[in-house]
């Protein structure tokens, strides 16, 4: 197994077993639900925005290891970021997973550990698992009332 493959497994398993920011956020002023009908992943994302910046974020829900790990790592990556940086990070992450190029979207912070998800693109059905939390974040930031979906 490649070094990136081993790191992928290690990081995914760690964030699945001990997800970061896995809690409802009482101070949230934005909230969205997400659902991946293909494999049954469900999550609720709570976001507190202050001065155009994500002050705090949390999630609850259930799903596969990739979905939960992605949500956990996403919350760590966007906390403290401006809304524009969070959107740019979403674009860069989505490009990485869909094979549309690994170049960063303008204004995007570095992906950091999120790069371990690059191996997911080899399994197209799992891309939806990895992007569910990100689509749900976008829905929360846009104050959408519909359930965010990967379809």
Write the layout of secondary structure elements.
Layout: H1 3-17, E1 30-36, E2 41-50, E3 53-62, H2 65-78, H3 83-98, H4 124-141, E4 148-149
Parallel strand pairs: 1-4
Antiparallel strand pairs: 1-2, 2-3
Helix pairs in contact: 1-2, 2-4, 3-4
Outline of the structure:
The protein is built from four helices and four strands.
Explain what this protein looks like in three dimensions.
- By secondary structure, the chain is an alpha+beta fold.
- The protein has helices spanning 3-17, 65-78, 83-98, 124-141; strands at 30-36, 41-50, 53-62, 148-149.
- Strand 1 and strand 2 form a beta hairpin.
- The longest helix has 18 residues, at 124-141.
- Strands 3-2-1-4 form a four-stranded mixed sheet, covered by helices on one side.
- The protein is globular, with a radius of gyration of 14 Å.
- Helix 1 (3-17) packs across helix 2, helix 2 (65-78) packs parallel to helix 4 and helix 3 packs antiparallel against helix 4.
- It has one domain (3-142): Alpha-Beta Complex (Sufe protein. Chain: A).
């Amino acid at each position: 197994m490649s070094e990136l493959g081993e790191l992928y497994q290690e990081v995914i398993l760690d964030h699945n077993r001990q997800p970061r920011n896995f809690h409802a956020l009482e101070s949230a002023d934005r909230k969205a639900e997400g659902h991946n009908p293909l494999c049954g992943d469900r999550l609720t994302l709570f976001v507190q925005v202050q001065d155009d910046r994500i002050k705090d974020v949390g999630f609850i829900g259930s799903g596969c290891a990739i979905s939960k790990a992605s949500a956990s790592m996403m919350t760590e990556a966007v906390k403290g970021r401006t809304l524009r940086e969070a959107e740019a990070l979403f674009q860069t992450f989505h490009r990485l997973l869909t094979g549309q190029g690994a170049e960063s979207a303008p204004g995007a912070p570095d992906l950091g550990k999120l790069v371990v998800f690059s191996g997911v693109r080899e399994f197209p059905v799992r891309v939806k698992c990895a992007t569910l939390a990100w689509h749900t974040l976008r829905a929360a930031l846009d104050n959408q009332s519909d359930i965010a979906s990967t379809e």
